[in-house]
Amino acid sequence: MRDRIVAGNWKMNLNYEEAIHLATNLNAWVADNQPIAQVIIAPPSIYLQTLLEAVDEQYIKVSSQDISAHEKGAYTGDISAEQLDSIGLDFAIIGHSERREYQGETDIIIAEKLKQAFKYQINPILCVGEKLEEREAEKHFDVVKTQLLDALVAQKPEDLSRLIIAYEPVWAIGTGKTATPEQAQEIHAFIRKVLNDEFGVEVANDTSVLYGGSVNAQNADEIFAQPDIDGGLVGGASLKYDDFVQIIAACK
Ligand SMILES: O=C(CO)COP(=O)(O)O
User: Fold this and answer.
1) Which ligand 1 atom is at minimum distance from the Cα of 93?
2) Range of the domain at 146
3) How far are the Cα atoms of 111, 114, 166, 187, 188 from residue 142, in angstroms, in the given order?
4) Does residue 23 sit in helix, strand or coil?
5) Which positions ≥6 away from 123 have C-beta within 8 Å?
6) Dist. CA 227–CA 5, nearest whole Å
7) Does 214 carry a binding-site annotation?
8) Is this entry keyworded Cytoplasm (predicted)?
9) Above 0.95 for ipTM, yes or no?
10) Considering its fold, how many domains does the chain have in total?
């Protein structure tokens, strides 16, 4: 059985007090409601250690939003996998489309980041997804396959048991436009086929593949009901307690 996961990517939102308030309220909700889904929050890095201490890891896991491609050294502003591991962190989002777009992250850099994550037993949430013009040109399958293979062929096969994938079509992020459940299911099934063809049936069956892109309390039920969608990576709606707990509850 694959893990059901709902992860909230807070991006560069919330001040210190707001972050603590949201995280502690979520922790209490998960403790009371015992949802099926594993709940993960990915706050800005400045709050990682505080939030790791503020929540109970039995209920909520904390993830970084990025990881350095380098082991250590003169990389101002970067945070290494070893540093994240040293505060007890187990998850990292890698290759988010906003980092690909604004920080120039390439598939080669992303492959290096994954290697660092695996080296320190951090479970990476690898983000893939096409841009609007790529979907319109019907290149979305090729784009996603290339992103997956470029990131994954360089990894040790045994490390892939830690992998989580998030399919996030760029045109659906923060736009209010969601992929239809059928569109999302189609590409999630395709991702599983690529995993099966390249890395074997076990990786294909065991890797949780999350959908991201304007998931909200209204559409989560239908999206999470698709057979190859194992949960969500949620941006805007993860900042609102009432919405996010409804989304967690929708992941059955
Ligand atoms: O980028 C996302 C999560 O990583 C999705 O963001 P939204 O849910 O705000 O569209």
Assistant:
1) 4
2) 5-250
3) 18, 21, 16, 11, 13
4) helix
5) 90, 91, 92, 117, 162, 163, 164
6) 14
7) yes
8) yes
9) yes
10) 1
